[in-house]
Amino acid sequence: MCGKAPLFRPTYSQIPAATPPSLACTTKTGRLSNKTARFERSVIYLNGRAYEALGCPGSVELIFDGNRRIIGVKPTDRRHSNAFPVVHHPYNYYRISAAAFCQHFRIKPRATMLFQNVDLDPEGVMTLDLMNTVTVTRGAR
User: Fold this and answer.
1) Does an H or E element contain 44, and which?
2) 28 lies in some domain
3) φ, ψ dihedrals at 116, nearest 5°
4) Does residue 84 form part of some domain?
5) Side-chain half-sphere exposure of 50, counting CA atoms within 13 A
6) Which of 17, 64, 82, 93 gives the lowest tally of CB atoms within 10 Å of its CB?
7) ∠ at Cα 109 (70, 10), nearest 5°?
8) CA 44, CA 76: separation in Å to the nearest integer?
9) pTM (predicted TM-score)
10) Can you tell me the distance from the alpha carbon of 89 to that of 24, in angstroms, rounded to the nearest whole number?
11) Continuous segment of H or E residues that includes residue 120
C-alpha cells in the first residue's frame, strides 16, 4: 500500500469470517462505481453491482463502528449463527433484513436513506457510512 492507511480499519463490534470478495468491479481508487445501497426500516438493499462486488454471497456478516457510525457488510458462511441471509428480488436488487442488528446497536433509521460513497476496503468489507447519506423519501403530505 506504499505507506497509505487502509480505507476502513476494523475497530468495531462484531455480530461473524468470510472469503474476500472479488474486487473486479471496483475502480482504481477502491470506490465502487455505480454501486448503491439503501437503508429502509431496518432493511439494507444492495443493487446488483454492489452484490457482485461482495462476491455474490448467500449471507453476510454485519459489523458496526459506533464511533464513526459506519456499518460494515462482508460475506460469510450461512452456517454461522449470526449470518444475515441475502435474498434476491426481481429487478436485480438484494435484501438484507437487519432488524436484530439495528435493535442491538440502537440504529433507528427515520426515513429511507441512500448511502453515498459506498466503499470496499482491502479486507473485503463494504462500508456504509450513516453520516454520509441522502434521504430519498418525500415524507408525509
Assistant:
1) strand 43-47
2) no
3) -105, 155
4) yes
5) 28
6) 17
7) 15
8) 16
9) 0.73
10) 23
11) strand 119-120
Q: Which grid coordinates are listed for 97? A: 433484513
Predicted local distance difference test score (pLDDT) of residue 72: 96
Its domain, for residue 77, covers 13-20+36-135
pLDDT tens digits along 87-134: 999 888 999 999 999 999 999 888 889 998 888 999 999 999 999 999
How many domains, the chain?
1
Query: Shortest CA distance to 74 belongs to which of 8, 137, 3, 19?
Result: 19
Residue 123 inside a domain? The answer is yes
Q: What is the pLDDT of residues 23-44, one digit of tens each?
A: 333 333 444 457 788 888 899 9
In a domain, 30, yes or no: no
Cβ proximity of 36 and 118 under 8 Å: yes
For residue 74, the cross-strand partners are 61
Q: Tell me how far apart the alpha carbons of residues 25 and 46 are, in angstroms, rounded to a whole number.
A: 14
